[in-house]
Model the fold of this input.
Amino acid sequence: MHLRFNPIRFLRTICLAAALIAAPVFGSGDAPKQKIKIDKLDDLPKHMYPVSGKASVLINSKERVLELARTVRADVEADLAGYEITDPTTLKRMYGTLLSIDLIEGKFDAALARIEQIRALEDKEAKKLTAGLTNIAMIAAKREVGSDAPTAEYKAAFSRHLTKLTAALPWSVVQDTIQQSKGRLEIFSENLLRGLVEAQMDPVVAETGELNGDQAAGVIGIRFTIDERLPLKSETIAVYQKLIEANKTVKPDIWEARSVALSKDMKLKPVLAAVWDSGVDADIFYGRMFVNASELRDGKDNDGNGFVDDIHGIAYDMNAHRATGVLFPLGDAAARMPQVMQHTKGLMDIQAAIDSPEATELKRHLSSLDSADVKGFLEDLSLAGNYSHGTHVAGIMAAGNPFIRLLVARHTYDYHTIPVARTEDWGERDGAKCLDTVEYLKRHRVRVVNMSWGESQQDAEDSLEANGIGESAEERLAIARRVFASQKEGLYNAIKNAPDILFVCAAGNADNDVEFDEYIASSFELPNLITVGAVDQAGDPTSFTSFGKTVQVYANGFEVESYVPGGARMKFSGTSMAAPNVANLAAKMIAVDPTLTPTKVIELIKKGADRTTAGGTSFLLMNPKKTMDLL
Done:
């Protein structure tokens, strides 16, 4: 299972998506003669691409990349012709792959038409308006001055066209997206891109001799970025920076007026809430932690419940075995962690389009990073996420509630670029871990559980591929399906069989339909589960938030301040921060009225929420004050 904000996944996505790609490429031979309707992502066949040598060497050859691009194009076009795909996110990804191929092959009319296809599918207004802007400006500049024009002349023409395109945009709608695009471009460097390939693709090719569709599209996109986008990096940033400075505005913050705090003199009963996450620094929440009075910190299972030293809760290692300690152990990485924490904050700010000092420092560091150092840097970022994520979530859950008592259920998320192999045995242990965890919560009468994490079948498949497990792509897919089925069944039944506990789940940060992509637990429909999307300080949906019919309410997931281990406070963004805002409200409601059931809590949260529309999409925006007034 992985955190809803995964640094490795995020950096890989923004770098490999340089030309609006980073999409899974689907295909398996000839397309069916009659279109087959696709109801979920797994229904689409996947295609593998043989590679001789290393992927990092393949990128050096434009001829080999063009050959790969032609093969990928044939597969994607065959799938579009042969399958009825109704999910807009999947279609955007597939069109994005074709767009990158159009551009690398110099087919400009096709590329412009492809951008319009992508925009027509986009629900988020800012993304609809900004999709493909730099590509349009590139094409216009090439047509104006010619492909063989002097570099300075071409760059000047590109700047003029991009300036004209961006000046026509409504700033109030696109400001976050423009700032985010600028921030992401600032971290691009050839060394970073090559380092990602060396760290994540080369080991896979060494094990399997193949690239999957996502990786093949990534190779094409990286080659395009090195050839076309990086030479225009300074010009693009300059245009965006000028636009930002000319339109400096601060969005209103709606959340202070909606907030509710309980006071100690209300003399309410304590409410037990579980932080099912990456671990918590219990010292920060002294007096508000669950305490198992039957257990001692002596390395023994004093109460005979199967868990050792579970004074404040339980823990599992990354192999889904029982462990001890409610805060993730850093080991030798402790000395590096202060700097890595600043880089983690910078990366989350870049995702949220925030131009902070931490984001600036991270951009500087990444731009000068040697490709050989990328692997270690990525693993440190992911380790920092393990270390800090649960404590930050706990702080949001506990804010303004002296009656909350926090019980920790710690996962150990894998932070390595080559992850633990998700074999069928691992999947069965992981499913059993979910059942065991929730049984523990039930025994201690937990009322609210926050789950700012998620899982998909692709995680299992990526793990198998990275570890060279399976004789073929088809065998790996079959194993991954069985692994994911064990996880899904275990988690679903664990939640279903705890009807007296309210589970609050983060939707995810992939800007995708969680139901179509089968994310768990955010795609589940259960009466005691509420899934939460993220909005910003003004109540507008963030560019990263996932969505779908199972996402019932939206909460603040933008620059939310909370604790990190040691007691410092930092601002993080993500649906990981939105979900505990809802868990916070639920715990306060139960403190006021302990008779509330999970279904009643959900009903009141939704009844008190404001029906809001953005970009033609209607959604419920949580309003803690109104919901509490209903009590």
Summary: The mean pLDDT is 90. The first helix runs from residue 7 to 16. The CA atoms of residues 73 and 98 lie 6 Å apart.
